[in-house]
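Exercise: predict the structure of this protein bound to alpha-D-glucopyranose.
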Amino acid sequence: MKHALITALLASATLLGNAQNQQKAETCNQQHYVPTAENLQARNEFSDNRFGIFLHWGLYSMFAQGEWYLNYGPNKDEYAKVADAFYPHSFNAEKWISAIKASGAKYICFTTRHHEGFSMWDTKQSDYNIMNTPYGKDIVRQLADECHKQGIGLHLYYSHIDWTREDYPAGRTGLTTGKDPKKADWNHYYKFMNAQLTELLTNYGKVDGIWFDGWWDHDEDTIPFNWQLPEQYAMIHKLQPACIIGNNHHQTPFEGEDMQMFERDIPGENKNGLSGQSISRLPLETCQTMNGMWGYKIKDQNYKSAKELIRLLVRTAAKGANLLLNIGPQPNGELPATALDRLADMGKWLNGNAGESIYRTVAGEVALGDSIVSTCGKGKKAPLYIHILTDKKDGEIAVTMKGKAKKATNLITGDKLAFRKDKATGKTIFELNDRKGDEDDYIIKVEF
Ligand code: GLC
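Solution:
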């Protein structure tokens, strides 16, 4: 027992050391990254958006076992045969983006190429792409055009790892897909990635963000792996200076990154085990699934309720972060019916009065555990929004607040709320009125 504990501690210390060394290897000898004015503005706009939709769609959806299916046994060449049957006859970019827009989400993040290695656009760098399927139409193009048309931000997910290509030097995943390790050739693979990224950032109009994933594949290497990120980031920023770069490495951001993301955790929480890193001052984003898996999984019908999703969005915003909520589209090209229902419910809530307490806000000062949180408008004397997320509401709540409240209203109904200052405790006590229509979140708008 004792031995096991010591081994575990040593292992985690080594891992931490590796991560730090890797980070050093990434940043040393580089000129410091200075974001352009347009990049800084893009970061602000990104934060103001607060809500986006993640879309995990690729060949893996055909197997309906989630996006990691190739990692769990299939041979890459057998797996690739499904490309010859990929025909999402019901895919309609306009329908997807319209439903997403109606949900109140302001941007999407689409998986252009996941760990399986299949490209969802007309890439000239590899034949393993959407054009060589019976469907034969560029998915990224259709989504990009539709996003631009409807005014929805476009972020592109791009995996740094590849379980199919021989030139990618495998780390700790994708080891049973039938690749020949002797054929690994990092320089060749790195060039391939940069050529693909150049296509994405040149041929599809404005790209608001690149969302990298897979760095962790080499986090157990004894010799720190050099991903050559600074050069890659510089290339992206040269092609589109306002493009926001994020990397799902579960570390504090590296030089050259413009945002920090958290996988399945609200910043400051680490229930999922991947979010122990410190929080930077960059824009923050939490990604989370609507059900359990990122890619479509036939047995995964365990959707969070609309109430849970609304509360998740509120708690995330109350930490000053965006929520990137995932949907795994079906093999036929449709978004699952339950996901569409959830989008509609969130839209009803956000496009009602609640939106003003989410968009363009920052973290608020009032926080009493998970159930009473707050957001705050921007600027001097901006209103504070206290969100009560419990099912049962008492007649009043007492909170500690800095400013002197002038007026309090129920944001959803617009009713004025009575409040008073308790001399003994210094707390402000708000009287809650009838809560019809705001069961998911009772919002007190406090003006100063
Ligand atoms: C993890 C998973 C990946 C998924 C991502 C989304 O990195 O490996 O499949 O796309 O999380 O956050």
